[in-house]
Amino acid sequence: MKTVDLLIKGGAVVSPSATIEADIAIDGERVVGIAAGEMSPPARETVDASGLHVLPGAVDSHVHFREPGYDYKENWQTGTAAAACGGTTTVFEMPNTHPPTGTLEALRDKQARAKRQAHVDYGIYGLLDENNIDVLEDLTRAGVSGFKCFMGNTFGDLPAPSDGAMLEGFEILARLGMRCTVHAENASIMARREAKMREAGRNDAPAHLAARPEICAVEAVGRATAFAEWTGARLHIAHKSSADGLDLVRRAKSRGVDVTVETCPQYLIFTVDDMDALGGQLRVNPPIREKGHGEALWAALHDGTIDMIATDHAPHLPEEKASNSIWECECGFPGVETQMPIMLTQVAEGRLTLNQYVQWSAAAPARAWGCYPRKGLIAPGSDADIAIVDLAAEGRISREALHSRSHMTPWHGFETRGRVVHTLVRGRIVVRDGVLADAAGWGRPVVQDMPEPAPRNVDKTTAAITAYRPD
Ligand code: DOR
Ligand code: ZN
To answer: Atom 10 in ligand 1: which residue has the minimum CA distance?
Structure first.
């Protein structure tokens, strides 16, 4: 038998459909075999995984690494180090940096920064906004993994595109087969409410929620799914936070719209009541809502309405989150390093099975972004992107231990059951026994193979009507 580079020996290997005791043979960057002990090939190095579980590394469709422009909050080195330590082996990074990733120049700059620093593999989102519709195709050719459209305002203050620009953007992305992620909140309702509340002197923590009621999400999900159905553009709904609007997603899916949906641990577990203790630390867009929404999101994961878990890793400095006025606290907090221990704790509590966890954290996002089964699954031929976890390890999340530059987390003190022991990215051990190896620069852009484009109403697109000449 040929000697392979690495053997992960004696662990329980987890896929969406099964958990089996097996060794994993890795040669170069790929898994080359999965076999019971006596069938395993000799290896130059062995990782003992007895008593441990071997999962596909998480694929996080939603992180903000802040570089360029806000490097003091995070950069590609610290953000991807945090990902690796959290068992996340692929990230998709958002365009609300400064400058935003809406031009070829900004994209090339970000690609160079990521290439130098990344510990894990990555995709880079391009921005879809009012003024860059004409460069969406160029951005696609230059290697963006998908697009982000901020329908609602959030950090970076990127104005929402008009409906006209958004629809035209969707027409183009439909033709290209690209997926567009939307921040689905209605900008105009939120701006008006926030202004009125500020005028009225309301600056308490729950005022943030009151300014962004469920109707903002319902309207935006409705509009985005309508545009996706009309144009045939692939759609991804970021950070679903409310029960409201899930029926619109179900309806769109049943009508054949290619729409995927993520939620995040914070929406499954926190409620707005946690703001009493955490205040601005828990300020995030969309907001953490009242009790009951979390239960609906869990149910939607279980019935397939929500496809996946992402983090919306959104680091800010602790002092940027600490004002007495909620309006002066930045929105978001880091999450890429804490997702896996938090969700494994939910597995321990019986909220989901380990197989569902790998479906929602790895297989589903890899599929949505055209990376499956190269990512998101441990199988012969797949990239050896692996998180080896100890499900019995008890711990407590500590802000000091985070690798993110931000060192601020509302999860500080949260008791966990489940720890990431080792992380591999394309066969290389980037975290060993919980300690980060020096693998900066090892991360590579993901290779995507999206399904054939399926544009609709092509005779009514902006391109078609402007090209038309009556005889
Ligand atoms: O709270 C948030 N913060 N929500 C977002 O959508 C963006 C993010 C950020 O970039 O800080
Ligand atoms: Zn975000």
So the answer is: 155
Beta strands in 134-233 (DSSP E): 146-150, 179-183
Q: What is the DSSP string of 321-340?
A: G--SSGGGSPS----TTTHH
* Ligand 2 centroid from CA 363, angstroms: 21
**Distance, C-alpha 9 to centroid of its chain:** 30
The model's pLDDT over 90-109, given as tens digits with 9 standing for 90+, comes to 999 999 999 999 999 999 99
Residues lining ligand 2 (ion), CB within 5 A?
312
State both tokens at 173: 């992305």
Question: Ligand 1 center to residue 320 CA distance, Å?
Answer: 13
Q: What is the pTM of this model?
A: 0.98
Which among 235, 172, 256, 240 has a CA at the least distance from the CA of 368? 235
List of residues 6+ apart from 174 with CB closer than 8 A: 231, 232, 233, 234, 453, 454, 455, 456
- Residue 459: which residues within 8 A CB-CB, separation 6 or more? none
Is the pLDDT reported for residue 6 higher than 80? Answer: yes
Question: What token pair was written down for 270?
Answer: 């926190």
